Amino acid sequence: MKTFIDTGTKLYGVIGSPVKHSKSPMIFNKLFQKLGHNAVYLAFDDADVAKLFSGIKALGLEGVSVTIPHKSAALAYIDELDESAKVLQAINTVQQKNGKLYGYNFDGLACIQALLQKLPELKKEAKFLILGSGGSAHGIALTLASYKKLEKKFAFCGSIDIAVRNVAKAKNLSASLRALGINSHVFSFAALNDIPLFYDVVMNTTPVGMLHLGRDLSTEAKRSDDKPLQNGLEQSPSPSSSPFPLKLLVKLQEQKKDALVYDIIYTPLQTKLLKEAGAVGLNTLGGLDMFLIQAAKQFYLWTGERMTLEAMRRLWQEFPSEQLVS
Fold this sequence. Notes:
The chain is α/β, with parallel strands linked by helices. The chain has twelve helices and 14 strands.
């Protein structure tokens, strides 16, 4: 293994605010080193998206991962969008070639591919409940609705309901889903106590339960309506919190025994939501595979080298446990 830092070193990075919790620098620098690429991947934390893109152009970054809160605002600085980014109207990946910026969005596809790894026989007309209505929720919901068009494969999504703190803020997303032929309703978190929970998949797209949430991320969650209620009370994002109360997990298990609870958070690997879901007998899936699949897609875009999910899992396991939770 050789580490390169010289005048020919290619520069990549992640932009967002905050990015302290991101494991992308850890993963990509390991990949570059193991596969002999003269490249380095850094984190750039700034709330000013215009400043960040000015830096990307000026410093000649070859590729960039885009995270909250810039996924939608970044569109204004992109020269060309791929099909997924056009559908989702947000990007999570940038490639710079010949002075032009190309935007992609792998969020939804990575999420679905991880889901199908877990449930390869997911039935057609599956019913989804998505917790949250922020950028991740939009990307995943619209990709679910457009999966056949984007991947030229079978469509398996029958309905997508959305649970949010403020119902009004999710109505546009629900209307977009209905326009794509997907049944969709919006519920407040409090209303989940009063409706049947016959869902095949309940998916958390909020940051509630994530490790190392700083003030900025909590603010972003509140701004994007991703701060849910528990037992009718507002809940602050923290690893000791869950966006879906235990009594609702019990209700879900009673009404849909084979339901899957999917939390796209990957730090920690086992969130409070997943622990409680598993304890009541529900199937569970964390966000690590989604993160690794997405990283593999970005790495292929930037370097032309493919990495399988199995190879990415092995790479993750090479890191000391304290580095994975720091």
